Amino acid sequence: MLFSILISLAFSQEPPPPSSPDDTEDTPTDQPSGEGSDDTPSETKDNEETDTQDSEVEDAESTSPTDEQPNPPSVKPNAPKKSIEYEDLDDPPPTKAPPKKKKKQKERIVTVDKPVQTVFPMLYSGLERADALRRVSAASKIDTASLGPITFDEIIIGQAPSSPSNVEIENCRSTPVSKDRLRMLSQQIQNEIVYYELEKAQKHLKDAQEGILCINTSLDFQTAARIYYLAGVLEQILGNEPASIANFYEALTLRPNLQWDANFPPDALPFFQKAQKRVAQVSEVPLNIVPKEAKTSVWINGVPLTAEENALLFSGVNTIQIIGNKIYTQKIRVPADTPEVVLVIPSSLSNASTSWMHKPEKQKEVAIILTRLMEESTNVYLHDQGKVWTTVIGQSNWAELNVPRGAMNASIFSKKQIGRGLMWGGAGMTAIFGGITANKYLRAREAANSAQDTDYFQVFDESRTNYTEISKDYQYWVGATVLSLVTSGVGFYMTF
């Protein structure tokens, strides 16, 4: 009995065998209560670490890569390393989360602000500059130093006719030539073709065709047609059929009744006939001339326009000439599908054209012309007869500004106002003093005749006395009249 008790005590104090991580993980949790009470502190600590690690594995499995976990859960340094089995898990073991994708930076869009307008053009008639500046400044709230007074005569200098339509315009690119020079070149080219001096003919034809656009007088369209005709003959000799037909076509647009010249070989005649057929089939395109007042100064393909006539261009090449203070000759190439061609002629403007602003139908024409003369989006002002308008270049509408009443009153100390006062005051005094002078002259003449015709000394003496007194007054009023005329002349000079 005693022996069995000793053996039992010996077995109960034997230390438990060390457990591996696998044994620990596979150990069932529902142990008998007796065995659980005999666990040592190290076993309890191992079990707690295993439970903690298992929970961390579950957390790692439930966390997706998008949760941005940089590393898997780490084991405390003091805890023994343990292997974790994933065979019974649906997801693969946690791996290092992929690096964050850098967000693509948006490209910076650099915006360049338009330069601020510092000078504002102010169109006026050329008269009363100070008054125009004062009124425009008061109406626009812009300082006079920021206003740039300018007249139409100044802005149209060197501005050739142009078009906002989809057409091609060719201008003079050489020095001016005369009619006689073109006629001489035409005859010279004909002789060179006849004698087969083709290189010389080519050179002179180039000079002649450029000279048509650079003529300094009204164009002789018959001479121009002859030059294009000779060019067609020459191009046929050189074997260039398209150029030959094109030159014959231009000749026929200037002279529709042009006939084949039998002095040349008939080799180019088929090309000439093709050009005739093309002219007969060509379509016409309406031409809108701005301003309308310029219509009577335009020649189209050798025909002058009238004020009532509807202007038309051919689809293709046209030769036009604008005759005014300066002569412009141009070629306009019009595509066949063009619905209308707008031709702007700035040279038809004058300083007096500011008065067009009083007519609503003319305001649009002024806006179209200024679009061809000034930079787009420019604020511009126009003054005429005390009224002020404004627009933005590129738009067709004008807005009339309110001019304060105080700005309407002209300065009484301005040079022109003083000049006007002297001019009209002198004119009035001249009329009055001249009338008195004429009256004195007639009375003196009457006294002289009376003294000459009488036979009585008493009458003669009285008439002579009257004549002497009236003569003194007459000389005085003559001097006053001359002084009034001088005053009026000085006033006129100061005004204009």
Average pLDDT works out at 81
Strand content: 5-15%
N-to-C terminal Cα separation, in Å?
155 Å
**What order do the SSEs take from the amino end to the carboxyl end, as H and E?**
HHHHEHEHEHHHHHEEEEEEEHEEEHHH
> Largest sheet at a glance?
5 strands, mixed
- Based on secondary structure, the structural category is alpha+beta
Radius of gyration, CA atoms, in whole angstroms: 53 Å
Binned, the helix content reads 40-55%
Helices, by number, come to 15
Low-confidence stretches: 9-91
With strands numbered from the N-terminus, the spatial order across the biggest sheet is 2-1-11-12-13
Shape: elongated
Concise synopsis of the structure shown:
This protein has 496 residues and is an alpha+beta fold. It is 47% helix and 12% strand.
